[in-house]
Amino acid sequence: MHQAGVEGRSRRAHRLVVPTLIAVALCLAACSSGPSPAKAHSKGAKTTTTLPVTRTTTTLPVATPPLTAIPGAAASPCGTSQVRVDPSTSNGAAGTQVQRFIVTNTSTTACTAQGYPFVSLFGPMPQGGSTVQANLTATQEPIPASFGDLGQSGGVQTLSPGGSAVFFIKWSDVPSGSAQCPTADGFDFRTPQAGTSDQRLIYYTFDAPICGSTYDVSEVLSDSVTS
Fold this sequence. Notes:
By secondary structure, the protein is an alpha+beta fold. The chain has helices at 2-33, 37-40; strands at 76-77, 83-93, 96-105, 111-113, 118-127, 130-135, 139-142, 157-159, 164-172, 186-190, 200-203, 211-217, 221-222.
């Protein structure tokens, strides 16, 4: 009977050990195949992310030299604002007066002038019981071709920076009948190719009064023409 009790206890112990070993084996298999909870949710863990590097190439502008006039290239017409007008010599004989004016290019580029400049004389004129500066009633005409070099065509005059050309104003100082001969204190001026809005006042007191209904103006001529 003692032997039977021992065998019974042995069988019961065997039945308890086998399930326990199976449970341990299953636990080890599960723990080794999955991520560790402690690592997956560890508090304060730092994650480093490497971002792609983008390279940008910037092309800087290249400085260019200032533009210069090309030798032999055609220059643009002189604007009134590009030139200065100064009185030069004057001559008078037999009632005819001639005044020479110098046109100087004050800009930094060459320019051209061809033909007659616009000249409108002004001076003291009576108006409403007083005297005001106003355009004279005389009008501009070309100097006759028979009047020596001053009546000839000037062609294209190219004025380099600081270069000059000339023109002449011719008029009579002999009264005709009872007509008045006003004095002139200057003139409105435009270069031959300038627009009507591009003009300036040239102040110059003429030595002799302006008689008659016209005064004559030459073309723009070479500065070698003196009379």
